[in-house]
Amino acid sequence: MEKPTQCAVVGGGPAGIVLGLFLARAGVHVTVLEKHADFLRDFRGDTVHASTLRLLDELGLGDGFRQLPQSRMDNFRLPAGSGEFVLADFGLLKEPYNYVAMVPQWDLLNFLVDAARQEPCFTLIMNAEATDLLTDGSGAVAGVRYRIKDPITGGTLETHDLQAPLTVACDGRGSVLRAKSGLTPKEFPVPFDVWWFRLSRDPEEIERVASISPRFGDSDVLLSLTRRDYHQIAYLAAKGSDPELRAEGVDAFRNRIARLRPDLSDRVGEILSMDNLHLLDVKLNRLATWHKPGLLLIGDAAHAMSPAGGVGINLAVQDAVAAARILAPALLDGSLDDHTLAAVQKRRWLPTVIVQTFQRLMHRAIFNQVMAGKQPKPPRALVFLSRKFPLFRKIPARMLAFGPLPEHAPGFARRKPDA
Ligand SMILES: Cc1cc2nc3c(=O)[nH]c(=O)nc-3n(C[C@H](O)[C@H](O)[C@H](O)COP(=O)(O)OP(=O)(O)OC[C@H]3O[C@@H](n4cnc5c(N)ncnc54)[C@H](O)[C@@H]3O)c2cc1C
């Protein structure tokens, strides 16, 4: 049994690291467990939206963040018929929050962890995989059991019980703690799966296709993230088509990629076999209740997000900020109870439902059509307004950049830029 903490946070993704940083700044003793040895994760998006950029400034971290290698996304386009239209023009928003930053997620997480490590109350344990919930005599969650993994073999080196009056599950879409708690999310249909792989890139190469710009094919879509010496590619095709794709073989797959990105056709031979592809089973779901006595779930663990619109990271960050605002005072004065946990869900419920509804509409209007080999059908009024009145693009830009009911950093987390 190890020294108890005031809050055990499981998962070092955007939700868990931001929650750990905020609670530590409030003076709450917080321990974050992350099952991986580092934050190097390619199979995630890189978008840092305006709401997060503003939070970083409020935390006094904006200048440091802007030093990280990054690119900017100025608008968001969608296909319409055989062409495309600008759904959101971020340039119409007020400076300095008039763009979406594209930063490899490991750079963002390492940067936030460096800031959190300045706080004496913050502890991060890597290679620590939560395996079960601890409960007290009344059945309330009283902490978490975790194992320290051998980084090479994945075998168990040690097992620990971490006691805490509150455990927050930030362990993502495949949440182990959610399964252990018995909470089951409502699933919404998703029309596609994602296959990830890499193609090489000359660091001097100037992109002919803007980073992350989706390329739409007859029944598939391709997204790419620009890294220094490689392109991280996400190929989207109909859900459940993995066996069919693999049966077609690697040559047919290379042709699919070359058709979507002719500028990369000179290197599709780098996909040596279908084993080079990593399949991601995309989910869109939501828990009806995000808490039980002693346990709260936030981020993808409470509501898995589709990649549509690329907003899941920011929603997870917003959950963490709202949770810290409500939890910190209650953890410090010992008044935390079920009402405190319900207050977190209440604050984040509407923004979550709005964003997921928007994603489901995008699935229906764009992805369902494309996957069925049809032309995408975004609402005609939207296409008309955007093309006829370019200023209209400010409204979707604001919704995408800040999301509904965006959070500000509470006073206890704010610092001057040079602090
Ligand atoms: C294909 C795809 C592309 C996407 N692209 C974008 C995008 O461009 N922009 C965007 O904003 N969103 C995007 N999203 C959504 C986004 O990735 C998620 O919504 C966001 O990462 C959720 O953050 P989180 O912290 O809740 O969970 P996660 O980011 O999933 O983090 C969970 C963390 O918990 C750790 N963990 C898991 N289990 C355990 C355990 N048992 N013990 C300890 N640690 C554990 C994991 O290693 C991980 O570090 C995309 C999603 C998909 C599926």
Provide a short characterization of the protein structure.
Pfam families: FAD_binding_3 (PF01494). By secondary structure, this protein is of the alpha+beta class. The protein is built from eleven helices and 21 strands.
List its traits.
419 residues, FAD/NAD(P)-binding domain, 11 helices, globular, binds flavin-adenine dinucleotide
Structure, explained:
Residues 5-346 form the FAD-binding domain. GO terms for molecular function: FAD binding; oxidoreductase activity. With 419 residues, the protein is of the alpha+beta class. The protein folds into two domains: 7-73 and 81-186 and 284-413, FAD/NAD(P)-binding domain (3-Layer(bba) Sandwich); 191-280. It is 33% helix and 24% strand. The protein contains eleven helices and 21 strands. It has helices at residues 14-26, 50-58, 62-67, 105-116, 176-181, 242-248, 250-260, 312-333, 338-371, 380-388, 394-402, and strands at residues 7-10, 30-33, 47-48, 71-73, 75-80, 83-89, 100-102, 122-125, 128-135, 141-149, 156-163, 166-169, 186-188, 192-200, 215-216, 221-226, 230-238, 278-280, 284-286, 291-292, 295-297. A six-stranded mixed β-sheet has the order 8-2-1-12-21-20. Strand 15 and strand 16 form a beta hairpin. Helix 1 (14-26) packs parallel to helix 4 (105-116), helix 1 runs parallel beside helix 8 (312-333) and helix 8 runs antiparallel to helix 9. The chain is globular, with a radius of gyration of 22 Å. It binds flavin-adenine dinucleotide. Residues 10-16, 33-36, 44-45, 47, 129-130, 170-173, 176, 194, 234, 280, 282, 299-301, 305, 307, 310-314, 316 line the site of flavin-adenine dinucleotide (FAD).
